[in-house]
User: Which sequence fits this backbone?
C-alpha cells in the first residue's frame, strides 16, 4: 500500500501562492488602447498567423511559473511516499505507578483507577501469543515479576493492584524489568510507564535510561501543568493568593497534589531571605490556609519569597516578589515665631501631624522653622511645605517657594489673620509679573459674612476626598467659618476649587504650578476666623491634605510599591509568564527517549500495528523544480528574443 | 547657409506650418547647399564651343575666341527647358497618419514635398502641375511656368485633408488618358491600396505613354517599425475596421510583410524603368529633392 504523507502538511497551503502569477496576469491586463493606424492590411495578416502561437506560448509560461511555485510549497511541506507494513509488537512490560499521589482525583475516578484501565486496554489490544509483565512501582515481592502469556490472569493482576505508601524508584524497577526479560529470554519490545510523575523524576533517571534500548512509552496522568508550580495548586488552575500588609499575611492554597509521597511537604515564607514561617503541610490537605504576621516599619526593599514543595524546597517551586516600602513623607512647617495667630496654626498642625495612634507609626517626618530660616534648608528634600500664617513674604522666600513647587513639590498656604493683602498680592498673585503667581487668584478683601458658614466639598470623587467620601453626610459639617478672604474672579484654567463655603465663595483651592501643586485656604487656621482647629473635622482634613499633597502629583504609585503603614496586596506566583509550562512538546524535546502522552489517552495498541515506512521525495521534486525553472528561463528567453526584430533596412 | 539648411529637417518644418513659406525656405536652403555639388550648372546659361562647320549660322560664331585663337568656334547654347512636370499627391485617409506626436503626418510631409518640388521646378522655369487624388481625382492643376502659378498650387496644398479610401490604379489610368504630352510625373503616395499589382500596372501604363515617373513611396516611422509598446485596439483610418493586437508579438511578422510589400514595388518599378524612392517621413526633405534633381539631370542628357 503506497500513499503520500507530509511532514508539514500545513505548508501545503502555500500551493495557493501558485495563483499569484495568474493574479498578476489578470491584474496587469489592461483595456486595449485605441490606436488609429493607416492600414490594417499587414497587421491583420501578421496577427492571423502569429497571435495563436503567442497565446499558446504565454499560456505555457504561465503554467510553468504556477507549477514552480506549487512545487516549492509542496517541497516545503516535506512530502514522502509511505508504505505500510504489518509489524507485530508482542512482548511488553507495564509499570504502573501505585504511589499515594495516584489516589488524587480531579474527577470521579482517581488517577490510579484510570491507570489500571489504560493498562487493561493495552493488554486487551495485544494478541494472545504476546507476553507481558505487570509491575507496580512499589513492588514488595520482586520474584513475582515474570513475563506471562497474555490472558485474563494478567488483567486480574492489574485489577488487584493497590496503592502503596512510599515514593518508589522507577529506575530500579526499570533495571529489574530489563534484567527479568533477559533472564526469562524474552525479547522485550516496549515498556509502558503509567504515572502522574512530573519532569523532575525523569531528570534523575535520565542518564541511566541510555542503558536500555527498549522503547519506553510514558503515559502521564493529568494535563499540561506549570513545572515550577507543581504543588502550588496551579496544576488544577485554582487561585493562590498572598495578600495583606503590614499586620497580617494570609495565605490560601488551592487544590493540589504532590508528585510523589515524601514527608517533606513544606510551606515557607521568607522576607529578605529570612524565613518568617516554615511549616509542614500534610498530603491529604488539598486546601489549606496559613496566617502569619509581619510589619513593615522601615522604608526600603522587601523580598518576599514563598516556597512550597514536597522535595526539600527546591528552586523550581519558589516564587519571589520585591516590594518597595517607601519612607514617610517629609513635611516642612513654616511659621512666624512672633505672630500669635500663626503660632496657633502651627501648634495645631504640629499636634495633628505628629500624633501617633495606637500601634501605628507616625504619619510624617515633620520639621518646624521660621520663614527666615527657609534659605538654610534644601526644600527639595521635603515632599510638602506648609506655610502656616502667611502675613507677608520676602522676595527671596517667594522665589525659593516657586522653585520648590515648580520642581514638583507641594505647598499648603494658610493665610494669617493679619495678612498684608498688598504685599501678598504683589508677591504671590502674579498680578504685576510676567509669570503666574503661586496664588490661584488675587486676594480681594477680608469678608465677614452676616452668619457663620459651613464647608461644602465641591467634588467628593477628587483624590483628596475620595477616602472620606463615605462619611460625606457628617464630615466637614461641624466647623463654623466667621471670616475669610474674598478672591478676585480671574482664575486660570489650572485652578481647581476643592471646597466652598455655604455662600459659594471658594474655601480651599488648588493650583498647578510647574510640576507641583499649591493648595490655598482662604481662611486662617489660627482660631479666630473659624473654630476649625477645635472641631472634629480638623484631623481628617489635615491628614487628607497631607497624605494627598505628599504623594507624587500625577499618577498613583506603582503597584509593587507600598508606603509604610499602607497595606500591600500581592499575588504569588505573580504572572503566568513567570512560570514554565510543561507541554508534550517540551517533554518530547527534553526527553526524546520517551514516547510521551498525556491524560491516559494512550491507545498504543501494539497488536499487529501498521508500520509505516517513509521515503522522502525531496530530491525528485527539487530536480523537477530545477527542470521547470530551466524551462521557464528558456521560454522567457525565447519570448524576449522574439520581441527583438531588426528594423527594416531602407 | 546653416540657417537655411535647417528647414530641410521635418522636425523644424512641423513648426512652420505654412506651405509656401516652408517650400521657399526648404528650396532656398537646399540650393544654397548645392554649390559644391556635382549638379553645378544645371541652369540655362550652360554652353559649349565647337569648331565652325560650313552651314552653321554665322551669328553663332564666338568672335572673342576668334580674336584670341584666330579660329572659328560656334558658341552652342543649351536648349531652353520646356519640361512639363506633374506632381500626383495621394490625399487618402491613410496618408493622414501619424496623427499624434510631433512628427509630421505623411500628408503634411507630402504637401511640403510637393510645394518644395513645385517651387524648385518653377525656379528652373519648368512648368509644373498638381494632381491630388484619393479614390478619384480631386484637384487637377495643369502645368504652367509662371511664377504666379505657385500660389494656386499652394492654395490647394494648404486646404488638403486626408479622407476617403484609395484607388490609385483607377486614378492613374484616368490620368494616363488625360495627360497627352510627355511629362515628368512625380508621385507622392503611401501606395496603400487593395491591389499592388493594379498599381504597378497603372504605373506601367503611364510609363508606356513615355512619361518619366518618380515614385516617392511615403511611409511613417510607425508604419516601418511598429514600435508600439502596449496592446492596442488598432483602427483602420480608411475603412474604420478594428482589431486588437499586441504589437510586440506580431512585430516580427509585420516587418516581414511590410518588407515584402516594399520589395514588390521596388523590384517591379525598377523593371518598368520607373524611379522608386522609399521615403520615411522622418527624413529631411533634401533626400527627395536630390532624387528629383538626379532624375532631371538624366532626362537632360
Assistant:
Amino acid at each position: 500500500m503506497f500513499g503520500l504523507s507530509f511532514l508539514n502538511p500545513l505548508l501545503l497551503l502555500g500551493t495557493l501562492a501558485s495563483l499569484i502569477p495568474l493574479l498578476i496576469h489578470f491584474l496587469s491586463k489592461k483595456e486595449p488602447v485605441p490606436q488609429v493606424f493607416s492600414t490594417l492590411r499587414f497587421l491583420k495578416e501578421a496577427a492571423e498567423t502569429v497571435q495563436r502561437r503567442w497565446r499558446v506560448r504565454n499560456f505555457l509560461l504561465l503554467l510553468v511559473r504556477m507549477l514552480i511555485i506549487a512545487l516549492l510549497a509542496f517541497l516545503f511541506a516535506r512530502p514522502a511516499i509511505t508504505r505500510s507494513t504489518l509489524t507485530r509488537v508482542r512482548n511488553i512490560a507495564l509499570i504502573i505507578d501505585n504511589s499515594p499521589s495516584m489516589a488524587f482525583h480531579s474527577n470521579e475516578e482517581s488517577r490510579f483507577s484510570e491507570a489500571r484501565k489504560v493498562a487493561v486496554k493495552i493488554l486487551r489490544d495485544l494478541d494472545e501469543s504476546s507476553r507481558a509483565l505487570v509491575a507496580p512501582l512499589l513492588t514488595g515481592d520482586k520474584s513475582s515479576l515474570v513475563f506471562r502469556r497474555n490472558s485474563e490472569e494478567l488483567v486480574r493482576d492489574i485489577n488487584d493492584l493497590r496503592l502503596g505508601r512510599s515514593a518508589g524508584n522507577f529506575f530500579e524497577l526499570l533495571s529489574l524489568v530489563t534484567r527479568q526479560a533477559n533472564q526469562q529470554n524474552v525479547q522485550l519490545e516496549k515498556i509502558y510507564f503509567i504515572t502522574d510523575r512530573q519532569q523532575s523524576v525523569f531528570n534523575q533517571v535520565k542518564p541511566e535510561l541510555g542503558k536500555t534500548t527498549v522503547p519506553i512509552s510514558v503515559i502521564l496522568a493529568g494535563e499540561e501543568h506549570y513545572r515550577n508550580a507543581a504543588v502550588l495548586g496551579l496544576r488544577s488552575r485554582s487561585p493562590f493568593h498572598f495578600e495583606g500588609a503590614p499586620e497580617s499575611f494570609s495565605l490560601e492554597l488551592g487544590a493540589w497534589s504532590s508528585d510523589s509521597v515524601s514527608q517533606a511537604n513544606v510551606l515557607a515564607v521568607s522576607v529578605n531571605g529570612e524565613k518568617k514561617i516554615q511549616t509542614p503541610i500534610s498530603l491529604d490537605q488539598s486546601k489549606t490556609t496559613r496566617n502569619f504576621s509581619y510589619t513593615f516599619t522601615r522604608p526600603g526593599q522587601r523580598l518576599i519569597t514563598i516556597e512550597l514543595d514536597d522535595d526539600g524546597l527546591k528552586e523550581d517551586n519558589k516564587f519571589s516578589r520585591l516590594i518597595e516600602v517607601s519612607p514617610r513623607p517629609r513635611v516642612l512647617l513654616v511659621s512666624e515665631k512672633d505672630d500669635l495667630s500663626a503660632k496657633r496654626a502651627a501648634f495645631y498642625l504640629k499636634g495633628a501631624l505628629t500624633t501617633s495612634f495606637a500601634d501605628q507609626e507616625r504619619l510624617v517626618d515633620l520639621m518646624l522653622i521660621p520663614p527666615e530660616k527657609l534659605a538654610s534648608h534644601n526644600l527639595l528634600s521635603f515632599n510638602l511645605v506648609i506655610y502656616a500664617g502667611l502675613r507677608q513674604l520676602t522676595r527671596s522666600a517667594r522665589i525659593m517657594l516657586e522653585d520648590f513647587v515648580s520642581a514638583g513639590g507641594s505647598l499648603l498656604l494658610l493665610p494669617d489673620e493679619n495678612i498684608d493683602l498688598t504685599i501678598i498680592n504683589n508677591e504671590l498673585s502674579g498680578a504685576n509679573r510676567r509669570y503666574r503667581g503661586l496664588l490661584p487668584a488675587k486676594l480681594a478683601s477680608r469678608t465677614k459674612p452676616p452668619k457663620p458658614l459651613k464647608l461644602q466639598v465641591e467634588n467628593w470623587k477628587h483624590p483628596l476626598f475620595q477616602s472620606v467620601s463615605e462619611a460625606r453626610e457628617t464630615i466637614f459639617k461641624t466647623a463654623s467659618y466667621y471670616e475669610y478672604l474674598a478672591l478676585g474672579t480671574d482664575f486660570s484654567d489650572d485652578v481647581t476649587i476643592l471646597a466652598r463655603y455655604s455662600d459659594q465663595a471658594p474655601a480651599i483651592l488648588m493650583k498647578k504650578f510647574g510640576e507641583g501643586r499649591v493648595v490655598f485656604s482662604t481662611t486662617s487656621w489660627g482660631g479666630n476666623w473659624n473654630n476649625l482647629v477645635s472641631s472634629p473635622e480638623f484631623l481628617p482634613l489635615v491628614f487628607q491634605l497631607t497624605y494627598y499633597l505628599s504623594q507624587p502629583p500625577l499618577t498613583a504609585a506603582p503597584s509593587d510599591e507600598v508606603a509604610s503603614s499602607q497595606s500591600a496586596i500581592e499575588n504569588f506566583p505573580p504572572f503566568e509568564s513567570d512560570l514554565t509550562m510543561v507541554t508534550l512538546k517540551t517533554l518530547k524535546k527534553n526527553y526524546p527517549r520517551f514516547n510521551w502522552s498525556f491524560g491516559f489517552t494512550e491507545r498504543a495498541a501494539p497488536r499487529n500495528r501498521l508500520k509505516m515506512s517513509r521515503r522522502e521525495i525531496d530530491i525528485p521534486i527539487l530536480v523537477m523544480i530545477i527542470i521547470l525553472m530551466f524551462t521557464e528561463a528558456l521560454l522567457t528567453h525565447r519570448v524576449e528574443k522574439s520581441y527583438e526584430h531588426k528594423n527594416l533596412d531602407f | 547657409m546653416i540657417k537655411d539648411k535647417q528647414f530641410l529637417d521635418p522636425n523644424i518644418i512641423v513648426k512652420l506650418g505654412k506651405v509656401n513659406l516652408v517650400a521657399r525656405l526648404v528650396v532656398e536652403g537646399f540650393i544654397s547647399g548645392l554649390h559644391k555639388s556635382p549638379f553645378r550648372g544645371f541652369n540655362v546659361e550652360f554652353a559649349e564651343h565647337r569648331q565652325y562647320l560650313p552651314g552653321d549660322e554665322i551669328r553663332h560664331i564666338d568672335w572673342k575666341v576668334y580674336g584670341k585663337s584666330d579660329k572659328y568656334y560656334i558658341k552652342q547654347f543649351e536648349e531652353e527647358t520646356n519640361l512639363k512636370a506633374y506632381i500626383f499627391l495621394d490625399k487618402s485617409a491613410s496618408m493622414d497618419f501619424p496623427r499624434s506626436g510631433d512628427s509630421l503626418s505623411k500628408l503634411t510631409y507630402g504637401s511640403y514635398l510637393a510645394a518644395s518640388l513645385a517651387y524648385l521646378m518653377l525656379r528652373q522655369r519648368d512648368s509644373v502641375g498638381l494632381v491630388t487624388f484619393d479614390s478619384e481625382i480631386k484637384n487637377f492643376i495643369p502645368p504652367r511656368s509662371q511664377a504666379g502659378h505657385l500660389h494656386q498650387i499652394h492654395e490647394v496644398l494648404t486646404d488638403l485633408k486626408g479622407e476617403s479610401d484609395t484607388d490609385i490604379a483607377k486614378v492613374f489610368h484616368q490620368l494616363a488618358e488625360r495627360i497627352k504630352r510627355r511629362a515628368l510625373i512625380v508621385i507622392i503616395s503611401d501606395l496603400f491600396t487593395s491591389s499592388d499589382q493594379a498599381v504597378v500596372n497603372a504605373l506601367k501604363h503611364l510609363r508606356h505613354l513615355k512619361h518619366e515617373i518618380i515614385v516617392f513611396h511615403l511611409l511613417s516611422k510607425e508604419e516601418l517599425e511598429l514600435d508600439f509598446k502596449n496592446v492596442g485596439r488598432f483602427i483602420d483610418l480608411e475603412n474604420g475596421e478594428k482589431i486588437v493586437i499586441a504589437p510586440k508579438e506580431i512585430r516580427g511578422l509585420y516587418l516581414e510583410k511590410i518588407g515584402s510589400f516594399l520589395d514588390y514595388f521596388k523590384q517591379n518599378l525598377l523593371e518598368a524603368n520607373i524611379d522608386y524612392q522609399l521615403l520615411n517621413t522622418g527624413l529631411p526633405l533634401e533626400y527627395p529633392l536630390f532624387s528629383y534633381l538626379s532624375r532631371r539631370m538624366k532626362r537632360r542628357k
Residues 260 and 266 of chain B are 10 Å apart (CA to CA). Chain B touches chain A through 44 residues (CB under 8 Å). The radius of gyration of chain B is 22 Å.
